[in-house]
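Structure catalogue
Derive tokens from sequence
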Amino acid sequence: MADPSSYRPRPGQIPDSPGVYRFRDEHRRVIYVGKAKSLRQRLASYFQDLANLHPRTRTMVTTAASVEWTVVSTEVEALQLEYSWIKEYDPRFNVKYRDDKSYPYLAVTMNEEFPRVQVMRGHKKKGVRYFGPYGHAWAIRDTVDLLLRVFPVRTCSAGVFKNAARTGRPCLLGYIGKCSAPCVGRVSAEEHRELAEEFSDFMAGRTGTYLRRLEKQMTEAAEEMEYERAARLRDDIGALRKAMEKSAVVLADATDADLIAVAEDELEAAVQIFHVRGGRVRGQRGWVTDKVEEITTGALVEHALQQLYGEETGDSVPKEVLVPALPEPVEPVQEWLTGRRGSGVSLRIPQRGDKKALMETVARNAQQALALHKTKRASDLTTRSRALEEIAEALDLDSAPLRIECFDISHLQGDDVVASMVVFEDGLQRKSEYRRFQIKGFEGQDDVRSMHEVITRRFKRYLAEKEKTGEWVDESAGAQGAAQDTVEDDFRDASGNTLTEDTGRPKKFAYPPQLLVVDGGQPQVAAARRALDELGIDDIAVCGLAKRLEEVWLPDEDDPIVLPRTSEGLYLLQRVRDEAHRFAITYQRTKRAKRFRSSPLDDVPGLGDTRKQALLKHFGSLKKLRSATIDQICEVPGIGRKTAETIAVALAQAAPAAPAVNTATGEIMEEEPDIMGSGGEPATAGAPDERRGQET
């Protein structure tokens, strides 16, 4: 590991002008390329206290052994040079979008004497018109097959074309009318090129004019009683309409635009692009990238634009590019795009209308692509095994943690405090063993005390069930209204844990994890460890994953463990933590919604959640609000006299036997269990101890 101060440039040596810089490692390999409006300010940000740097940036500067730069005149030149160097050096610490597949294009080789329609992949060639990209090659072939009866352009290879010209016999497509057979002289080179241009114009979106012309010709043929010609034109129109149906109109006619959406988490990002030409979605593509450096959404968009248009010119760059966030600054990027196209390009965020609605669709595709990428990665057995081994090595465990439990706390400004417990076994989710907890022991935003309480309650149940010999309370049965199950036979494992007769697995809370993960940093980890120590449990490893920097914290350690960016172990811990957060916040939102649904204030028209909370906070309870005068209700900010009168009438008409109200907050409470089953339904008929999680 290199010390950045060993290769830091001397003060005043770096120019204060636009440019591009390169970090190299000890073997002179380029590991990072960046651009800057001011080289002096940007490079100075890398040579500061390592503790202040993002972990990924810290790894880059300690891997590097030297830095060099090139001064340019404008930010646009810096953008162009940065793209060229990234393509040339492929630096390991730069954002590199990798295609999830190779996308095919429909190409018309206008650079040949007899243009050919074909499927093409890879680099684009000069003089060839491209349409797409398409999701699958068969989608191109289906479209071409429909259009060839109207535009019989050559599709054969050069060898087949030369052989037909030599023998004087066209191929099968020439005999069935799907090729104009220029190889045997049925049409001249000029006539065939005109067909190819009409084909290209139709694919470019200029469909209305051509369809109207064919319809006019069909009508004229019918009037002249040329019924066979009219029938052929009718079939041609049907084929064209069928081809057009394959790409529905999504924007106004003649709109050319690319829509780019980004879905991201702390480690990876997925980019989806919809290509709209002539108002129709002509193609779709997607990329996934590792977020090697600390980067904003706008910077991800900038890298995507470089990847997308770095080698494009002319009409391949659309007039309009819609993005979720603008690069900072946006002017050089927009100027660079204009230079690639040769005319003005609008780069903006859609605000309303059809374009915003379509952008939401693209964003959903990006989210699904990222989820699919993670699912594929998580489903691989070898990858999961490596992840568990990396966790065991990083945390110095005796064996791989085959069962991991993760806990998270969720609340809304101290109200409705809840917790979640999720379970991963062999690197996969065990949703049947998820649990949810209510925290009622205290009020306020104290995640540390909440974490201590939840860990204590969970492992008290574990110890209680471990000691039982004949009777066991089934948590999931309580969630469905059943109070207890009786275990007649003494099924136990080697550790003395109660087992079920049919599966031989420990029952619910009787099965301890090898690793306990908490969502949080050093304070939450210390609280979890303290709870286990108080219960005399010393055979369960504890760690925490801090979301901001993805650092792994261990008990009684002053410094965190920073796993490598490519670590499968870090990826698994992140999935576990994110699932616990999702499960907790879903429960918290459900509780909040239930609380307001049962309030008499719901009957007041036009009174939203914000003003309901303001009323309850002002008076302290629903009882005090009911006894307040209209003038007192008007003192609440946002409540006018007319609304106050409506509130007073609604409360007066409400039944006197109102639901229980929290005297501290004035909020309506419902009887709900402390521990919830994975099905999400509260326990309704369990014994009181079971519904409280056997809390002492």
Remarks:
- DSSP finds 22 helices and 21 strands in the chain.
- Confidence is low (pLDDT under 50) at residues 469-507, 657-696.
